[in-house]
């Protein structure tokens, strides 16, 4: 009897930004390069060597299936994500790994030049709403990986630029030499800047 063989082709996260307490899923692509259906393939999902879940699937000959495993990392750090096939006759192509850098949160500093004291609104209000807050629900889940701090334009020079990974310059009227130098230093350290 010919051995049955399917290949675990890839493993990737649903997003490139992985943060603690924020739901994510990992997709595994499983291919059957043979001509006959392979039933009852057990697929295991592991984090740091601990099984988090498993599923049984069937893959038609010449076909591929993508399955998704949801997960919530509770601690920041580096995690070893693995998907493996447990019921395949040829084991050399039965596992894929992914090293996940799990961040506590992505700190974003918004330098806001558009504050309207009469309307008590700002140019950055919609942006902040889109990024979301890093509040944790009673179930321990966050909907956003971002931790946003907003400072008015006149406090730009005194703002701490050591913590944020991203600075957003929102409706800044002018940029002097001191502000430009501060942004240049931030960029040299690997930070990202978004201007609108």
Record keyword descriptors for this entry:
single chain, 196 residues, mainly beta, 4-stranded antiparallel β-sheet, 4-stranded parallel β-sheet, 11 strands
Describe this structure in words.
This protein is mainly beta. Helix content is 10%, strand content 42%. It has 2 helices and 11 strands. A 4-stranded antiparallel beta sheet has the order 4-3-6-7, with no helix packed on it. A 4-stranded parallel beta sheet has the order 9-8-10-11, with helices on one face. Strands 1-2-5 form a 3-stranded antiparallel beta sheet, with no helix packed on it. A hairpin with a 2-residue loop joins strand 3 and strand 4. The longest helix is centred in the C-terminal third of the chain and has 12 residues, at 177-188. The protein is elongated and about 75 Å long. The chain starts with 6 loop residues before the first strand and ends with a strand. The mean pLDDT is 90.
Short précis:
The chain has helices at residues 125-131, 177-188; strands spanning 7-13, 24-31, 38-47, 50-59, 64-71, 77-85, 95-102, 106-112, 146-152, 166-170, 192-195.
